[in-house]
Amino acid sequence: MDRLIAAHKRKMQQVLKDFQDQLGTVRTGRASPAILKPIKVDYYGSKLPINQLATISVPEPRLITITPWDKSSLEAIEKAILTSELGLSPSSDGNIIRLALPSLTEERREELAKLVQKMAEENRVQMRNIRREANDGIDKMEQDEGLSEDEVRRGKAEVQEITDEFIEKIDEAVEEKITEVREF
Length: 184
Hints:
alpha+beta, 4-stranded antiparallel beta sheet
């Protein structure tokens, strides 16, 4: 039973990690290289993430610079940014692409806060699904291996504790991100 619980705990850890990566792509008032993560650049017939074609840095709170390793990829990177859903206009001097991030309007901040809440709820549902799988596994072990009622109850209580712990971590990450989104 301990192996079953440990396996489901690893699944929950992966869901939490994926959620935290997802949160990184949500734009806030500050520049972050993570907002470029979902953008793929068409480079010699392949779709590659920007970070595999260039160095991304944040020299100022509202500025991202992208320095391509291969200068011929500059236009492809610019085009990928323009066609993305970020709504940013890249400016280039032939060597470096600069992305100036405008201030977010209050309305846009609220939209982003709602988006973060929606993402959190989807991940909470995933956590609850993993809990259900673990509980089903414990029930199956009860039937197959003849676990006692006390062992089953203890196992389910442990699974619930782990689930609560991970949902709490999601809630903390959401609060932190919403605070960051609402900052000016």
